């Protein structure tokens, strides 16, 4: 089965696995970093590993809920996923969560699938072939000013950009991947997030936004590279090409 078809089918099926736990009593634990882990995260992780690695045993595997196997860096292709991105929202019965997986090819991103089961919203992207949501092509429109631009960022990002005239959106429960989806589907104009971001927290959203026409870099304006020994990125800046350039200029002042 082609990788694109395999990924789409697996992520949609994983949505049903997650929904079996959603809105019902479920086991949960608090991780050392104070984030929440639920039995749904583990069930989705196990399901996707069986489906994806079962079909492509020569591919690498990088998941938030699996022990890291360093041998993945020697493999040309690697699945990078967060079984449930936005676990806190999932645990609280909110809708700001998704199942997200990307496929890397070397240090680049090849495929991306992001599914919000409670909203039946399925995002998909393939390198060089564009991005869609439920089959509809996504396109990030151009902008020529930061003034009034909708910022999908946290309070530190807003403080840094406040004098540029951006408008802060309430992103308290929205994970980074869904914020990148918002850039792709025109429900936000700018995403700025400072500090280290794990690959599984951004990879699927990065390709989606890029294929919709946005520019996505680290906070230093550097192109992201994936499936490295230390799988993380130094912040995110995402927007259409012009606004991205304006943000970088503003932050360098």
Question: What's the topology here?
Answer:
Layout: H1 3-19, E1 28-30, E2 36-38, H2 39-55, E3 60-63, E4 77-85, H3 87-92, E5 98-105, E6 108-116, E7 121-126, E8 131-133, E9 136-137, E10 150-151, H4 155-161, E11 167-168, H5 176-184, E12 190-198, H6 203-211, E13 215-217, E14 232-239, H7 241-251
% residues in beta strands = 25-35%
Compressed to H and E, one letter per element, the order equals HEEHEEHEEEEEEHEHEHEEH
Overall pLDDT metric: 95
End-to-end span in angstroms?
Answer: 50 Å
Proportion of residues in helical segments = 25-40%
Largest sheet: 7 strands, mixed
How many separate structural domains? 2
CATH-defined fold name of the largest domain = Fructose-1,6-Bisphosphatase, Chain A, domain 1
Stretches where pLDDT falls below 50 for ≥5 residues?
A: none
**How many beta strands in the DSSP annotation?**
14
Which structural category do the helix and sheet elements fall into? alpha+beta
What's the alpha carbon Rg, rounded to whole Å? 17 Å
Strand order of the largest sheet: 3-4-5-6-7-8-9
Question: At the first level of CATH, what is the class of the largest domain?
Answer: Alpha Beta
Shape estimate: globular
> Quick one: CATH superfamily of the largest domain?
Fructose-1,6-Bisphosphatase, subunit A, domain 1
